[in-house]
Here is the input.
Amino acid sequence: MSAQFTVASLRSGAFPSSIVTLGDLGQWLEANGTLHLQRRREMQSAINTVCRALGIDPSVVPAEPRQLRPRLSKLTPAMAGVSLRRWSNAKSLLLKALKYAGLKSMAGRSREPLAPEWEALRGLLPDRHFQSGLSRFMSYCTEQGIAPAAATDRTFVQFGGELENNSLLARNPAGVHRDSCKLWNRAVETIPGWPQVLVSVPDRRRDFALSLDAFPSSFRIDLEKFLAQGGDPDVFADSYSKPVAESTLRNRRQYILMAATALVRSGVSLSKIIDLNVLVDITNVKSLLRLLHERAGNKSNNAIYHIATLLKTIARHYLRRPPETIDHLRDLCKKLKPTSEAFTEKNRRCLRQFTDQKKLLALLTLPERVLAQVARRDELRRRDAVRVEFAIATAILTNIPIRIENLTGLRLDRHLQMFADRSLLSISVEETKNNVAIDQELPPQLVRQIQVYLRKYRPILLEGPEPWLFPGENGGRRPNAGFGQQLSKFLAKEVGIVMTPHQFRHLAAKLYLDQHPDGFETVRRLLGHKSIETTMRNYRELEAALAGKRYAALLDGLLSDLPKSAMHEGL
Here is the structure.
């Protein structure tokens, strides 16, 4: 329903309470003759830019900063199809429009001058880190008429509430609130003349698992023994199985800690959790899984299912519990296995982005574009080298869609091999998830890009001799999760897409099947699946979409073959 604007409401400048969407706000601006025409057009353009970036009609986008912020925080200027400056201006103008219309909103980094007392205090700050970290709080206090000497714990709490409810701050508002409190306290302790009021630093941690140190030493010893057997098994033991990956051991440790914590929170005393035997007792298993199930909203999820299957593994292979116990645990695992699609909605959303051919072209040309841009810089900075590093990672995933653990584990002394005029990426059976070796020849363009990276940019990232293609801190390997998250942020900023490293595998399947609808065997080999059934199960949905496209092409062909006279007769 369209909003109705009365002459009285326009003269008063009051925003009618019935208007709750950005579409309503745009109509109100258009009807409001009290605002300068140019300013009105700028605000309306900002609303359109934001809604276009969100891909949602203005009539359904809420005109509230609290609801807008989480949506906008996921967008980058590239996603909006505008420059960084234009995107910043659009958000700033949107806030001004909300404020002008009478809706409560909090500006970002204010360009308005601080009150003299705050400006004098700002002059005492030693560096930009302090100045940037406290600028929003100082602007807030200036706007509220709060002097430095009057700032209290309550002032910071109110500031945090404003950030949470009335700002479009893309970064975590709770984090900005916490950082402001920490910097204020540091200023109290280190800067002469600073108001001597220490404030409470909010603790927003939501850790569920207890610390491992909270459990009896006998439990910790048994846990380490179990993990050691998985990481370095005895090849002569009857129960020998292939060593598990480091990432699997980390996950097992966390799952066992979660299970033990859930047992404690279900009412079992910490002192009674003396070893892993306690965790696989059927009564205890049901208690801890029931608590986790209720905590998840009375439904199962992958974490609960993995905990259940791990407890079954411990009972069967490590503790050698009787068959009836294993059967009970197996039955629980079946009941807790979450229903899942072969191809999730998250993956569908990822691939839908590439119906826009400009997005696909931007992704495919990204590595070369970044190398060209950085090469034009007069002075190389570490951030430039990092940018090239992610561009090379993107190039590898585009050409050879390996898993993230293999990407971060690439070593110059093992996996990149040169033979005459050819270069290979070679990863052994033992290093892949499904025991399928990877041996693929690198395209000449990718070889050249890697060589430029190795010669010119990788040395900037090194602190010593390291074998990793993508070196981490302190000579170590890059963590899978951290590198993956950083790469996703890089793609969002540079290309304007939401994509994880693993989804390059889905994109590879889509691109090949688009051109070769029956090419599942090639996709199987490309992705390293052992079985064609795995490939078909994962990507059969893509074939269904292609069938629709082929049928549409058939109809177009039939129509083009009909004589024009027949088409007119049909009308």
In short: The two ends are 37 Å apart (CA to CA). Residues 7-100 form one domain. The beta strands are 416-419, 422-427, 438-441. The chain has four domains: 7-100, 116-190, 212-336, 357-527.
